[in-house]
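Message: I would value a second opinion on how I read folds in token form. Give me a protein, with the fold worked out from its sequence. Write it directly below this note and I will take it from there.
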Amino acid sequence: MVSMDTTPEEWVRYTPRERLQRFVIFLATALAIVWALTSINVIWAWVFDAPQQMGDLFGRMVPPDVSNLPKILWVLVETVNIATIATAIAVFVSLPVAYIAAQNTTPNAFTLWLGRFILVSSRSVNTIIWALLFVAIFGPGIVAGIVAIMFRSIGFIGKLLGEAIEEIDKRPVEALEATGASRFKVIVYAIVPQVMPTFWAVAILRWDINLRESTVLGLVGAGGIGLILQSAIDTFNWQEAATVLLSILVLVVLGEIVSAWMRKRII
């Protein structure tokens, strides 16, 4: 009589090789974190003292000083205008860039790489860095802020629109080309209708992002509410700084509400 072993095989989630790979990954991550912490100059005494300093700072901010509120509200309107104008110009400029950066619409390899170079260059530089550059060119003020946000937005909008163009259905394009339609008509009647939802979604999203970014441009002299905030910090007027921060918070929340309403109405 032959005996049969009916003992169930023990289930193991990971194989020995997978466990070794996970151990190596965790070890490499831990070593990278340790190296990062030891390679930067952190004054740990200040880190441990931070909660006490934050409590003292927030105590100086209470109650907020609203005596300068009319000027703050006016500069908030200026901040909204910076974001809106910059977004509108960026949308207009990014359209041809997106067209030449998409593989299925670019005229040739040179224009393809030119468009992608523009997109990468725009997105590689932070808005504050653009603002510092254009403050040196145009001087302090809202013009530098508008141009800085516009340059930063071109890469964002152009990349997403270019990807949307690459993902369009080719059949309407081929049908119009088969009838002998001009390139302009192909773009208007076959490409534009397919990318319009993405166009509006990206434009509204970028306006919302620019509204947030425009609040800090004043820290480098590029206009907006950041100018008053920087002035309040430099003069240790923490109560006015609290009013500015609360105003920025309200502006960002209102911007989120407006952008959500616009997406619901348009898209």
The chain has one domain: 69-266. The mean pLDDT is 86.
